[in-house]
Write a structure and sequence with these properties.
By secondary structure, chain A is of the alpha/beta class. Chain A is built from 9 helices and 9 strands. Chain A has 2 domains: 155 residues, Rossmann fold, CATH 3.40.50.300; 68 residues, no CATH class. In chain A, strand 6, helix 6 and strand 7 form a beta-alpha-beta unit. Chain B is mostly helical. Chain B has 2 domains: 234 residues, no CATH class; 151 residues, no CATH class. Chain B has 16 helices and no strands. In chain B, helix 6 packs antiparallel against helix 7. Classes of the chains: A alpha/beta, B mainly alpha. At the A-B interface, helix 2 and helix 3 of A face helix 10 and helix 13 of B.
């Protein structure tokens, strides 16, 4: 599986937010999309999942664009939004049923996986509840369960750690790691840089809608010319450099 | 305090004005016109059918109706949640604010009660043989009962004793019931005197409570919130009200009848039925219009009018359900899940058709009760089929596509 974003120009209106963004996500990779508020992380993600249409440039999954075959493109993606989105009138169980139906998964197998995930995130006894009334953190867990249930080829996760308790954060990171080993790819936007440094194996640094730099952590250190620097230092250093130049 | 009240009132009236445009839309006005027409006709027929002597049930009937009418309109306090923080220092002046609130609520009450009373006047004269003076006394009694109703709410804002269920029952149901029974069976003067003296006592209690008790912010906010919620819920039948996020009810017993998920083909069927059953936004509209249609059709013996009304109600119900098609547009997953295109419309059409068929069965049943001939019934069946085909056919496709 390869997600390929090439020369993407796009945004919400005629004025583009993203300027020539290019990067790739391959099987077995956890790619961190790093940037400050307003750097263009969520915009990039909205383009990848097809909520926004590129003004120019191309996004392909295994060589197919969304326009060419929407069903095949979308069936490869599972998405966890930054703010949980739930159906007001569906129970947790029905949310899972719906996901299974939408991705045309094998029912029994999917439910076994769902039960395991529900247990991990301590939701197993809440199947008959309306998740719309849950707390922020618990809603986020429902999103995680529904997404990871699909065994998608590409997980697109927007700011996954907001509102999660430490235990759930750890469980989510373990889950991401095991899915990576299964052969999935993960594109994750975050500004929790310390976690990103530890769990991502490739980084795309966005700044003011452009890719400032991309590469593995070692490559970033190389570019920053400091082998001891952590991701926060590198990020702040590189973005400040750009700001000063302007 | 005067300024604060007038600012609030202006804001409130602006909101009402804005929404009234949506509530009094063409469809609704048309339906209302038919409804009042039908009702007026029925009412005048009913009056004519009354014998010249007083029937045993006419007095209890009017008393029950007046007690029910009394429940219309609550205390409009226009308090807002942040007031508990920002107006806290003004707490001992709140009574002046509430006085304005009471004056406004009572004026609104007088209008509503008088209008309803006006409708009852012909029956009061013909059905229970009241004289003009007696009718006038009854009207005054009804207005004072409303004042009492509002005073209790005000009083409960200070003294929680007046919030007990039996006091509420006494002020809102039992008391009015007894007083009105006295008015129609014994003497209007006695009833009026009783209410008037009670009002004086209660008002004196209120004056005392304001001095001795602390203002119960939460109670008054709750009351206002409750009032606004039912107002918005009503308006929400016609247009989207941002303040209202319709409450969701499970209705667990109905779960077994809801469609279960089998294939990705009926994913929207799954969603639409759940939205209908649990969210109440559309179902309440559907149920009300169906019930209203049946009630009216039961009394329409003119076949042309019955045909027109059947068509009108099916059109109204179908048309008002169309927005349900877009109910899930805001949910990001509907755009991200690998769904086949076109299935949404197919599913929606099935759901709409089922709903319309159910309504049609009831409307047809009502027409049978109305006693039409076989030929007329066949005509009605014909118009039903035509309307369903029309509403779920190209018209729906065009409407649905137009709004996307």
């Amino acid at each position: 599986m390869t997600l390929k974003v090439s020369n993407l120009v796009g945004g919400y209106s005629q004025i583009p937010v993203l300027k020539n963004v290019s990067f790739e996500v391959h099987t077995g990779q956890v790619v961190g999309l790093i940037g400050l508020n307003g750097a263009g992380k969520s915009t990039t993600i909205n383009h990848v999942i097809g909520l926004l249409t590129p003004q120019s440039g191309k996004i392909t999954i295994d060589g197919i664009t969304l326009q060419e075959n929407p069903e095949s493109y979308k069936s490869k993606i599972a998405y966890i939004p930054e703010i949980p989105v739930l159906y007001q009138e569906l129970t947790l169980k029905e949310h899972i049923d719906l996901t299974i139906m939408a991705y045309n998964l094998e029912r029994e197998k999917a439910w076994v996986r769902a039960q395991r995930l529900l247990k991990t995130f301590r939701l197993a006894n809440k199947l008959e509840w309306f998740p719309a009334n849950f707390s922020k953190g618990m809603k986020q867990k429902v999103m995680i369960v529904c997404a990871f249930l699909t065994e998608a080829k590409l997980y697109v996760i927007d700011e996954p750690f907001l509102g999660l308790d430490p235990l759930a954060t750890r469980d989510l990171l373990n889950l991401i790691e095991s899915e990576r080993q299964r052969g999935a790819a993960v594109l994750m936007s975050t500004h929790v840089l310390s976690t990103a440094q530890e769990y991502c194996n490739y980084f795309v640094l966005l700044h003011q809608g452009k890719v400032r730099i991309q590469g593995t952590f070692a490559e970033l250190r190389e570019a920053y010319q400091n082998q001891q620097a952590d991701l926060t230092e590198i990020y702040l250093g590189l973005t400040q450099e750009v700001t000063e130049h302007e | 305090m005067n300024d604060l009240w007038s600012v609030r009132l202006k804001k409130y009236q602006q909101i009402l004005l804005r929404y009234s445009k949506f509530v009094l839309n063409d469809h609704f006005v048309l339906a209302l016109l038919f409804f009042t027409g039908g009702l007026g006709l029925g009412y005048s027929n009913f009056l004519k059918s009354l014998p010249s002597t007083i029937v045993w049930w006419s007095r209890p009937l009017i008393v029950i109706i007046l007690v029910l009418v009394l429940q219309l309109g609550s205390l409009v306090s226009l308090l807002e949640k942040p007031d508990t923080v920002f107006l806290l220092p003004l707490e001992n002046k709140m009574f002046f604010f509430l006085k304005y609130a009471f004056r406004y609520s009572f004026s609104a009450g007088v209008i509503i009660q008088s209008l309803c009373f006006l409708v009852a006047v012909p029956f009061l004269g013909r059905g229970i043989h009241l004289t003009i003076i007696e009718i006038f006394l009854l009207w005054l009694t009804q207005l004072l009962l409303k004042a009492l109703y509002l005073e209790r709410l005000l009083l409960s804002g200070y003294n929680d004793y007046f919030d007990r269920w039996w006091i509420k029952l006494l002020f809102e149901f039992i008391g009015p019931l007894v007083v009105l029974l006295v008015a129609v069976y014994l003497s209007g003067w006695v009833a009026l005197l009783v209410v008037f003296s009670t009002l004086i006592v209660v008002h004196w209690q209120l004056r005392k409570a304001v001095v001795h008790y602390v203002f119960r912010w939460n109670r008054m906010l709750q009351l206002e919130d409750h009032r606004l919620r039912s107002l918005y819920r009503f308006i929400n039948l016609f247009t989207d009200v941002p303040q209202i996020k319709g409450k969701v009810y499970r209705f667990k017993l109905l779960d077994t009848y809801l469609p279960q998920i089998k294939t990705p083909k009926n994913i929207f069927k799954f969603l639409y039925w759940r939205s209908l059953v649990r969210k109440g936004e559309y179902s309440s509209l559907y149920l009300r219009l169906t019930l209203l249609g049946c009630t009216i059709l039961m009394f329409i013996s003119n076949s042309i009018l019955a045909l027109l009304l059947t068509a009108l109600f099916l059109y109204l119900i179908g048309f008002q359900l169309f927005p349900l098609y877009h109910d899930y547009d805001d949910i990001v997953f509907m755009h991200i899940y690998p769904l086949q295109e076109g299935k949404q419309l197919i599913n929606f059409r099935q759901v709409l058709r089922t709903l319309l068929v159910i309504t049609s069965i009831f409307l047809f049943g009502a027409s049978i009760i109305a006693g039409h001939s076989i030929v007329e019934l066949l005509e009605i069946a014909g118009i039903i089929i035509l309307m369903i085909v029309f509403l779920t056919g190209n018209f729906l496709t065009k409407r649905a596509v137009k709004n996307t």
